[in-house]
């Protein structure tokens, strides 16, 4: 008898559609485990953190939250934010606290054109394209450095400074991660994104480190593109992309663009990785809490289910990850689509269809 592998997963649905899409992903993962003939199972613990928790307790998560989470094998996250709580409070109080507390410095956001899904930029549903945005997730523009009221010049003349922090170590590790990822792909190419013509300190350091790291990967093709030009390139020549490495802010914006190109924000998956595996990594859809559609059963669960596939890969269940990705493609290919991508299916319909295609 072989022993069963049990993965301890912390589920944090948090706000809005987070609850609906995390429930969808859990159902799919449990169906996969049930079909594994006892090879593996998921042991879930759900945490009620988020904006409701904040209204009740004044905190987005428990004070000892990181301590509680640190022994889990992975974190499966929904979405954070609600109109009743300022965005910077909710984001820094939960999601960014976990990302930074667990040194999840690499944020991987695949852009994947799914069968059967059109978008304003994709007129033929059989165009097959995919690339990956690798986002520096620990520093850059989201370092929280700066301040307000730096000068007291009287009413109407407040000054605010928002600094971006770039360290050689931070740049180098995210670039090596991007190059290593490129080596696993059919197209071995890394595109680095900057704005070094206008920002002469951090972005120039980024460029210099990129050139240096690239020298260690002679088998990988490279290019360095300004972020404005890269936005145009996403739209005009996405077939020329494989791995795109960018700073925290630039990659955040570019990955939303990529997911909109693929058809909807609701389709996009992401992994916040602590590559050293000293701490748990966190898997979440790219989208936010979507207050406009929350609680109506309309949320597209594909982003969250795709994030579950990324989690499977991270846990070493590579075959299951591939199987789940195929089931997602079969579902959209069969036209089972939520309203954001032009269909009439509910969150539950899509989830059930994915499970059907697993077996
Ligand atoms: P955040 O600041 O957390 O990134 P946001 O303000 O950018 O959030 P979202 O909450 O992601 O915005 O919503 C942006 C738009 O995308 C909304 O119109 C929302 O309904 C839609 N959307 C987001 N997620 C989904 C989903 N899973 N299914 C369908 N539509 C979605
Ligand atoms: Mg957003």
UniProtKB/TrEMBL annotation:
A Pfam family the protein falls into: Iso_dh
PROSITE patterns: IDH_IMDH
GO MF term list: D-malate dehydrogenase (decarboxylating) (NAD+) activity; magnesium ion binding; NAD binding
Residue stretches making up the Isopropylmalate dehydrogenase-like domain: 8-354
UniProt cofactor(s): Mg(2+); Mn(2+)
Key word Transmembrane helix present: no
Highest taxon of source: Bacteria
Keywords: Manganese, Metal-binding, NAD, Oxidoreductase
The keyword Nucleotidyltransferase belongs to this UniProt entry's keyword annotation: no
EC number: 1.1.1.83
Reactions the enzyme catalyzes: (R)-malate + NAD(+) = pyruvate + CO2 + NADH
Family: Belongs to the isocitrate and isopropylmalate dehydrogenases family.
Protein name: D-malate dehydrogenase (decarboxylating)
